[in-house]
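Training component of the fellowship. As part of building independent skills, the fellow (R.M.) carried out the full modelling exercise for a liganded target. The chosen ligand was NAP. The inputs are recorded below so that the supervisory panel can assess the work.
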Amino acid sequence: MAITTTIGKSHVITGKLGLGTNKVGGHNLFPNLHDEDGLAVVKTALDHGIEMLDTAYMYGLGQSETLIGQAIQGYDRAKIVLATKAAQDPHQDLKPNNDPKFLTQAIDDALLRLKTDYLDIFYIHFPDDKTDKAEAVNAVANARKAGKVRAIGVSNFSLDQIKEANQDDQVDVVEDHYSLVHRDAETTLFPYLKEHQISFVPYFPLASGLLTGKYGPDDADKFKKRFSADEFKEILAALREVDGIADAHQATIAQIMLAWYMKNPDIAVVIPGARLPEQAASNAKALDVDLRDAEYESINELFKNFKTK
Ligand SMILES: NC(=O)c1ccc[n+]([C@@H]2O[C@H](COP(=O)([O-])OP(=O)(O)OC[C@H]3O[C@@H](n4cnc5c(N)ncnc54)[C@H](OP(=O)(O)O)[C@@H]3O)[C@@H](O)[C@H]2O)c1
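Fellow's submitted model of the complex:
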């Protein structure tokens, strides 16, 4: 029986491993994506025991949600946890808009594309620079009262913006950048979130593929925006150690990484993205990895230099 988690103060309960879908229909963000692959990624994940699908209007300007709406036909909606996000305004060059009217309409539009009558989580994808955050959250809370949303999330909000958004204790979940090689949220966000019963969902958990172990020394350039040459070398060296743990479990490095996030009590759900169905199937096998406490600690230690000093 897979371990489950409850999202914030809501009644949304889900397994700790989900699916990220920015490469399902996200043609505006990534080149050479194929919708057939995207549909297969979603179905493969669901067929392998994944419940949470994390999407957004921004992934293909609705196309990701549309594909997911198609892919989930024939599955039991009650067993799927649909999380989507909006804020980028197509009428304002995709600048973030948190205006209550805009968010209310964005929720209705997402419901149509996803072919469902409720969203398990709706996140305000990005803060704008004008709307009072509590007012923005109230718009989502009104959609919750109307039965259209079950849990309220914010994404890419600073701690101060989260506090403003959570004035009335209505925020259930925060999604932000976090991985073993990007650990700032441990100090900046986790203490407040824990104190206020707000769940945390990290994005880029595999550092965009780097933490699968599929890259080598020649790939440093691909990651130079995020990691210095020294940091890149350090990550590859740490991954070689993780490979030993993976061997002991007859697992892949990616599966071990995902098992680490699932064992981490500060993380509600880990949502690795997948471009191809075989990646989704392989990642789902992390559900079978039972990481020992000592292994969890040694992975924590291997990446300790990425903790905020
Ligand atoms: N809230 C936000 O602002 C925000 C921002 C970013 C992402 N997100 C969400 O978070 C999710 C996760 O982030 P992410 O997908 O960008 O990054 P990620 O999970 O760190 O990396 C996913 C990428 O790694 C590669 N990969 C995954 N599994 C693999 C495997 N088993 N073997 C080899 N390669 C594998 C794939 O890319 P290639 O095959 O192309 O190498 C895949 O697209 C997204 O899908 C999205 O739903 C949210």
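The panel noted the following from the submitted structure. The chain has one domain: 2-301. The chain has a mean pLDDT of 97.
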